[in-house]
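Lecture notes, continued. The same structure-token format from the folding unit now serves as the input rather than the output. Read the line below as a description of shape only.
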């Protein structure tokens, strides 16, 4: 009897186990919608009692005139290969809290003029592969953990994508937002937070042809937080980790203001990288900023490899301006063609509490009828301005580099070139080092900062406080200490102590009047000088001589070849010869870490070749070219050219048969 009971118990357990496994393995149901399908419209399929969380609503070709509410966790998708149009009265898809976790995939939405394509008030939703045309707003999101992927939005009159995030993550990638046109303020993406958000990723999106109409119109293409709220205070988006990369912003127009990116967040770490922003055009009375970021977290802010060009406005036009409380790094960006505004600037980086580094940036063609600046760097602690290339900054008042490290400042290896006027470098620092830079073709090579050179004097700035004390003597105990502290601070800023030895000024004997000491100290000697040499200096016809120009020697006789990695690169040395060729009679060779090389080919008759090297200053050397050698053993083999960089593989050997001689040319590229 006991064995029978055990057997019965085992059978019952087996049946229960089979039932449990069957329940667990039940797949989601798929409900078909369309002509000749189970349901004629989408909402009926959703509302049916048999449709439960996890099911799929598969919609076939057709035009659906309905506003759809999603209140279950569903996958709504257009049938593969079908053309599914939704034409709502107000909102195409509304996902409420019961629809958390839903997905909307592959629909074509034609919005009413004031309508919204997709409105999500739920968490964990995915919107992908949809085409959303017209309406006021393409997609609205209120919630957390949302993914918006590979959608095409066009023809909206206000906003492409709007999000008020409550937490979790927000991923928006590979979307296209185009042809937004309307009055007032327009947005490509507008993101605010109503809670702490862990991650926001805005990656590989395209924004184009956004045109704000009207006198006071403006465009904020990518906007996270706001620089100013209604009360004049910034609205900081609470986002821990931020990544804005590989987005394209192009062809944006407005009368009042344009922000290609306005990012104001509390992020601990922020990466803004590899974005391309071009053709932002503001009309009369406008200010245009291609990339503006204020990151008030305490981590690292990296703004790198962004390419910005074609920025035009009437009041202010700026390529990149970044403010950070943590360490700021602006690296490998290229900014060009900023023009027409009363104040134009390429890159502005402000490290408000810690360090700032501006390195390997390229800035050129910054023009203004009034004020033009290439790169401006400021740090409350230490400032590094390294290996940047700044050219063609032109204005009634122009400066290529402005550097202010209120603890220490290092300006090294930069290549800056003026148009014959303006200032090369303005420095404000109690301990400034300016070394191994190319600073050529300016009215002033280097200036220590002086308030009166750029605006009102210190006394003029303090006058409003002095007047207030005279008018209200009872306020003197309050205002006088403030006045004294400001006076002390302003004079400290004007007391720059600058060591600027070992720079190349395009002149072996630079004019001392081009160095402005101000109220501090400025030591600019010894400076670098241009030299040229030929090895060997005597060759036969058909042979070669290596011509080397460098600025490794200073005017006091010091030799700095060991410091080549600290030197500038870029621009060109012009080599010429009156006999033989250096490629032709003239060749341009870029500077590479303070060095440029050319090869003189003795491919004409014998004589004495005069070879010159010019970079504003011109120096020359001579090579004696003899008649053809009797034996091939007298041929000179040009050694491998030193470039200052590691070799990439083996040097290329070219064997050329000419008149029975073999000439080996080795060039390190």
């Amino acid at each position: 009897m006991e064995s029978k009971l055990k057997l019965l118990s085992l059978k019952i357990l087996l049946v229960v186990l089979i039932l449990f496994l069957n329940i667990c393995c039940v797949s989601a149901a798929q409900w078909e919608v369309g002509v000749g399908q189970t349901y004629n419209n989408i909402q009926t399929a959703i509302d049916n009692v048999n449709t439960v969380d996890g099911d799929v609503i598969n919609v076939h070709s057709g035009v659906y005139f309905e506003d759809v509410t999603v209140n279950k966790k569903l996958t709504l998708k257009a049938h593969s290969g079908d053309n599914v149009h939704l034409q709502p009265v107000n909102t195409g898809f509304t996902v409420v809290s019961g629809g958390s976790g839903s997905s909307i995939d592959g629909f074509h939405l034609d919005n009413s003029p004031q309508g919204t394509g997709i409105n999500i008030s739920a968490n964990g939703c995915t919107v992908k592969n949809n085409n959303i045309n017209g309406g006021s707003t393409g997609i609205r999101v209120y919630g957390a953990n949302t993914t918006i992927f590979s959608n095409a939005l066009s023809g909206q009159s206000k906003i492409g994508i709007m999000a008020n995030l409550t937490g979790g993550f927000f991923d928006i990638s590979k979307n296209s937002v185009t042809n937004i046109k309307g009055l007032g303020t327009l947005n490509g993406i507008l993101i605010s937070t109503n809670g702490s958000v862990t991650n926001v990723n805005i990656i590989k999106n395209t924004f184009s042809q956004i045109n704000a109409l009207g006198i006071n119109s403006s465009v904020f293409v990518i906007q996270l937080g706001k620089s100013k709220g209604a009360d004049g205070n910034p609205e900081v988006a609470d986002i821990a980790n931020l990544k804005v990369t590989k987005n394209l912003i192009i062809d944006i127009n407005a009368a009042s203001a344009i922000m290609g990116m306005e990012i104001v967040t509390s992020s601990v770490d922020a990466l803004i990288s590899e974005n391309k922003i071009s053709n932002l055009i503001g009309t009369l009375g406008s200010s245009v900023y291609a990339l503006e970021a204020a990151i008030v977290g305490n981590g690292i802010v990296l703004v790198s490899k962004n390419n910005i060009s074609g920025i035009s406005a009437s009041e202010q036009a700026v390529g990149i301006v970044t403010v950070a409380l943590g360490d700021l790094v602006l690296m490998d960006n290229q900014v060009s063609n900023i023009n027409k505004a009363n104040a134009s600037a390429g890159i502005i980086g402000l490290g408000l509490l810690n360090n700032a580094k501006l390195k390997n940036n390229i800035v050129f063609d910054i023009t203004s009828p009034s004020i033009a600046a290439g790169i401006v760097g400021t740090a409350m602690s230490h400032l590094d301005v390294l290996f940047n290339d700044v050219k063609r900054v032109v204005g009634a008042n122009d400066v290529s580099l402005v550097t202010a490290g209120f603890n220490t400042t290092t300006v090294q290896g930069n290549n800056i070139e003026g148009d014959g006027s303006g200032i090369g470098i303005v420095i404000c620092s109690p301990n400034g080092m300016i070394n191994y830079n190319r600073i050529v073709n300016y009215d002033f090579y280097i200036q220590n900062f002086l308030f009166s050179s750029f605006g009102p004097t210190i006394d003029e700035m303090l006058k409003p406080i002095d007047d207030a004390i005279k008018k209200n003597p009872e306020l003197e105990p309050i205002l006088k200490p403030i006045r004294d502290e400001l006076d002390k601070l302003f004079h400290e800023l004007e007391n720059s102590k600058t060591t600027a030895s070992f720079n190349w000024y395009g002149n072996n004997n630079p004019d001392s009047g081009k160095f402005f000491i101000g109220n501090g100290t400025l030591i600019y000697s010894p400076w670098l000088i241009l030299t040229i040499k030929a090895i060997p200096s005597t060759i036969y016809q058909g042979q070669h001589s290596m011509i080397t120009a460098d600025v490794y020697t200073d005017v006091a006789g010091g030799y700095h070849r060991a410091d080549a990695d600290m030197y500038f690169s870029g621009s060109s040395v012009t080599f010429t010869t009156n006999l033989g060729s250096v490629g032709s009679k003239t060749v341009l060779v870029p500077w590479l870490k303070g060095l440029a090389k050319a090869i003189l080919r003795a491919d004409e008759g014998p004589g004495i070749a005069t070879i010159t090297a010019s970079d504003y200053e011109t120096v020359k050397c001579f090579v004696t070219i003899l008649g053809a050698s009797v034996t091939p053993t007298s041929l000179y083999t040009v050694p491998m050219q030193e470039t200052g960089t590691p070799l990439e593989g083996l040097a290329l050997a070219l064997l050329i048969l000419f008149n029975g001689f073999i000439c080996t040319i080795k060039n390190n590229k």
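Point for the exam: Residues 2-24 form the longest helix (23 residues).
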